[in-house]
Amino acid sequence: MDRNPGDKRNNAALSVLLFMLPSFLLLFVLFDFFPNTGLGRILSTPATLLVNLLITMALVLLPYRKLWFRIVRGVVVIVCTCWITIAFYPQEFSPPIEEQAAEAVRAIRDIDTVTRNDLVDRARFEDPRYVVALHKYLDEIPFDGSYQLYRHPNTHTDNYTISKRSDIVRKLKGHHKAMWWYMNVFHR
């Protein structure tokens, strides 16, 4: 029985949508964990999606017969589009996200070298050692409203006052939320 040509187009369209899904999901994760994009995100998001769409369409429309080729093609599409999504993602005043992620992993890995001084000396938005110190010395944080997260004063848009443990999770910025989650799960 011959297949309808419309079925092939529908399958190709479905494949393109499925292969684009990791790129979309990764963008939403990046929006939440790396918010300091400035106006660059307005240009980079459509450009990223367009490049990923072109790559996905090119690889999906390649003729194939063998199962191994379809599997390799799928892996190549997902790896390429995710890499492009990360590479095109802008950061206005922070280092590139690859560098921020590497510093976060390094800070968590070196948890034994983190000291109480890191709570004071490194209390900046961009320093992951501060978050590790905050987690490590959580029992020493006063929950009476006198402690300011990141040692930062309250502004008209952000309140950094910590009155209870749950305030920390809600008020952490960017990828520090992911670090906090990881340390809660794996470094109790």
Structure in a nutshell:
The protein is mainly α. The chain is built from 8 helices and 2 strands, in the order ααααααββαα.
How would you describe this structure to a colleague?
By secondary structure, the chain is an all-alpha fold. The protein has 2 domains: 84 residues, no CATH class; 90 residues, no CATH class. The protein is built from 8 helices and 2 strands. Strands 1-2 form a two-stranded antiparallel sheet. Helix 1 runs parallel beside helix 3, helix 2 runs antiparallel to helix 3 and helix 6 runs parallel beside helix 8. The radius of gyration is 22 Å and the shape is elongated. The mean pLDDT is 86. Keywords: Membrane, Transmembrane, Transmembrane helix. It comes from Saccharibacillus alkalitolerans.
What would the keywords be for this entry?
8 helices, two-stranded antiparallel ribbon, elongated, 188 residues, 2 strands, mainly alpha
Q: In this structure, how is the largest beta sheet organized?
A: 2 strands, antiparallel
Helix content: 55-70%
Shape: elongated
Percent of sequence in beta strands: under 5%
Q: Would you report the number of β strands?
A: 2
Number of helices: 8
The Rg value, from CA coordinates, equals 22 Å
Order of helices and strands: HHHHHHEEHH
The termini sit apart by: 60 Å
